Amino acid sequence: MPGTIDERQAAHPRDVKGYDTQGLRNDFLIERVFVPGEITLTYSHYDRMIVGGATPTGAPLTLAPYPPTGTPFFLARRELGVINIGGAGRVTVDGKVFELPSLDALYVGLGAKDVSFTSADAANPAKFYLTSAPAHREAPHQLIRKEDANTLHLGAAETSNKRTIRQYVMPNSTGTNQLVMGMTALEPGSVWNSMPCHTHTRRMEAYLYFNLDPAHRVFHFMGEPTQTRHILVANEQAVISPNWSIHCGCGTSNYAFVWAMAGDNVEFTDMDAAPVETLR
Length: 280
Fold this sequence. Notes:
By secondary structure, the chain is mainly β. Helices cover about 5% and strands about 45% of the residues. It has a single domain (about 5-280), classed as Jelly Rolls (Sandwich), CATH 2.60.120.10.
């Protein structure tokens, strides 16, 4: 089964000011990322990033061409980042097999024709989170183990944001064109991510929230710094963040999230700060 793809148009910030709750959710929240036995994707017109999930429960799932890309195969003009947040699985790229236990990642370069996903145990399926951006040059496929990712320990319990950041797909570790991808996990008792917040007009971003108890939620904040809005996000849901928008969150418990960016700049620290006292 090739799966489905949803297409999301870009929105101007002056229009988003007038959105109600459902309007925000329709344009920016991805409620169904992991569907058993399917590949489910969302094509965003912000930097043409594609985000989604592959959840194999039986036969391998193959990444097929989709109409929005207009190409003969999915990675004809794209690169792909994969992080497995579920049970053990494997990704096969043009006949080469990459074993991906939970929280390991894979970068797949431009031009790969056959990409498929398999779970080691259908009763505990892999959940491959996928992000893809346009690419202009080939780069080698690369497996990135959790323990090999560049790891940062930031924040403090006093500010409720003690967290561990793992940088997987980065310009200094893979041959990525424009895709940057990693994961942040908050410690028990910490609930804030990316605060103080920022924008980066040179690239968009997407968050996948996970490791969140089904009874809990994350208040994901977005919008221009002086026109903030929020979206309530459940476990294993994703949010599209436009280049003009802040992107931070506060949970009713601790959680983890995968972040991915695409655009003109691949420097992780290239941000335009939005100090707390300036937010409205």
